[in-house]
UniProtKB/TrEMBL annotation:
Domain of life (superkingdom): Eukaryota
Organism: Fraxinus pennsylvanica
Sequence ranges assigned to domain Gamma-butyrobetaine hydroxylase-like N-terminal in this UniProt record: 354-404
Short name of one Pfam family: PfkB
Domain named Carbohydrate kinase PfkB: residues: 198-268
Transferase among keywords: yes
Matching Gene3D superfamilies: 3.30.2020.30, 3.40.1190.20
Keywords per UniProt: Iron, Kinase, Metal-binding, Transferase
Keyword Iron: yes
Matches recorded under InterPro entries: Carboh/pur_kinase_PfkB_CS, GBBH-like_N, GBBH-like_N_sf, PfkB_Carbo_kinase, PfkB_dom, Ribokinase-like
Family membership noted in the UniProt record: Belongs to the carbohydrate kinase PfkB family.
Record protein name field: Inositol 3-kinase
Gene Ontology biological process terms, A to Z: myo-inositol hexakisphosphate biosynthetic process
Amino acid sequence: MIENRGPSCLIVGNYCHDVLIKDDTVIGESLGGAASFISGVLDGFSISSAYVSKVGIDFSYPVIHPPLICPSSKTTVFHAHFSSDIKRDDRVLKRVCACDPITPHDLPNSHFSFGLAVGVGGEILPETLEKMLDVCDIVFVDIQALIRVFDSVDGTVMLVDLRETGFYRLLPRIRFLKASTDEAPYVDVEEVRKYCCLVVTNGKEGCTLYEKDKAQQIAPFPTIQVDPTGAGDSFLGGLVAGLVQGLGVPEAALLGNFFGSLTVGEIGLPKFDLKLLQRVNDEVQQMLLQCTGCPEGQNGELMFMKSFDHEQFHIALGAAKLTSTHPIQECLRDLPRLHTAEQSIHSQCSGRQKSLSSTFYEEDEWTGEQKLQYADVPADIEPEEIRPMGNYAVSITWADGFSQIAPYDQLQTMERLVDVPQLI
């Protein structure tokens, strides 16, 4: 784990006003800009950070980390255009107003463990990134801060090859470069991975880590996309939050996928539930205690090898997300009955428990259609282990090594587990 000196992180990127437009009708307005999404994650983990953002005197939102006010400029404004046309899967993004850029003189002279260059509207200059590289041990760069250009007529966001920018010469000093699958073609993956860790996010497929001659796929957390705005920013926030606390890079990337999936499920800036954040933090601390498969790096180096507990960490975060999107605590007020419930579930599972696996493992992730019917499950299939997960679910391990989380409320609705007690 890298030693912290003063604030752990320096985040550089402007706040902005986001306007969501569907079929030419405004459907929402919210605070935007990478800093607003990242702060929601880092603040949730109480990670000390400094923010450098610029806005105009027209800035409309209260924020915990105040920006620099530019008296002669307006706040950056983006219009995200969506369509009901089934041929269009994503948004058309337009910058309709741009605030002043962030200069090297705007940055503090303090030293930071981590720096995040997360411009969205062309506000980060090459010389500004160069100073970040001077004052931060490890710098993360969102490629959109480097390769976005804007149509001179209507502000439509376009992308250029990284080699064509003034940032390319700084590539050997960048430690992490994040790009979406839409942005990745504008960088030479094979060239970039020689110098830094390239993280390519791919929505429902999770993300891929490219580092030197290795590539690792990091599993996703399936969700229904409502608005993709800020998903990459929340991903970066989760990735950095994990690394600050001492996770290896693959486990920190899992945390990034987790927060990215939460963000796309809401319109605009997500509101992370405090109980959810606490539970995720608990899982991170538990992961650190159990991380026997990820040896300490030498001289504070980051670890790129997956821990032996990587998959279990993914399952635990998935359970946290499940309970946050399908709250069931109201039906579990009588905590002393949980042990009785566990015993009943175990006895009901014996000889027929694979029906539980059909609910989670044999469903179409996107349509919810159940592919395996109860009658198709052999009567002699039973779990290796069942243990309670707090007051919301049980963790089930099967003979083939597959593990899953089964919430109590879902168990109570299943045909072949009709005797599971009602927890009220």
